[in-house]
Amino acid sequence: MTVAVVGGSGFIGTRLMTVLREAGHEVRNLDLQPSATHADVTTIGDVRDHDAVRTAVTGADAVVLLAAAHRDDVRPTSEYASVNIDGARVVAQGATDAGVTQVVFTSTVSVYGLDKDRPSETSTPDPFNEYGRTKLAAEQVLAAWGERDARRTVFVVRPCVVFGETNRGNVYTLARQLATGRFLFVGDGRNRKAMAYVGNVAAFLATGLTAAPGHHLVNYADSPDMSTTELVDLMTSHLGRRRQVLPPIPTWLGMGAGYGFDALAWLVRRPLPISSVRIRKFCAETTVDTTRLRESGFVAPYALADALHQTLAAEFPDGHVPD
Question: Which of 131, 172, 197, 220 is catalytic?
């Protein structure tokens, strides 16, 4: 197939394009940023640029939409709607103009909110931030696009927190704190976390290219879910660090400190590694129902524990933090 990836220069997109090219697909990428790995098939352009998107998707058999404003600290916050919602509209229109009938979209489990009881794809969304709200709105844009033509396929994946080599998200931040001995446990550690390895997410996204016409919506998380305590223990063991002996910080006190860091970040006009949002996410229950994923027959190429060990070994050789 000829696959147009929009927003493929990032963490998931880089891995996905590698998977697609190794499978023999012809891939082209449109992104605001150059690709360190796939520069030969990358064109610099904005997901909100109608002409750039139309050019990128013309002649493609399928479009994969990855472009998103996703960090916790995007400013102004209007960028979430501009990139996530307007970008989805532009891609939908570009696909219509080019006669493309297959769209694969990465959404997020953030559409459910925090501390839910294993929400399924049929649960009522309750996003707690602008990222989740605008990704849900983007899903609706693409669903409406799909409904206008019975030949169209919309394959939407809601991944949980994705980790892997080279990523600098929340999982890496936690590992770095443990590796440097600057970690303080907030909460009781019993909350369970859903996680997904980038290699598995990329492999599952690729299956969307052959999905039947219609609307498909699937949560993605690798099993088994781990409690925060189990995750911290696994990481400290791999890194050769001792388990924290200080008593955990109560959640209310940790959130208070997070708000203090929020104020400091505002004063210095730059994001800090600690924030109220990150502390809230750390203490939250973030598991999701993956019945549809299991029923799809997909077999993840990497076991979760092996993927965690592989990532930590790559990022922290011999347990040390690179300069």
Answer: 131
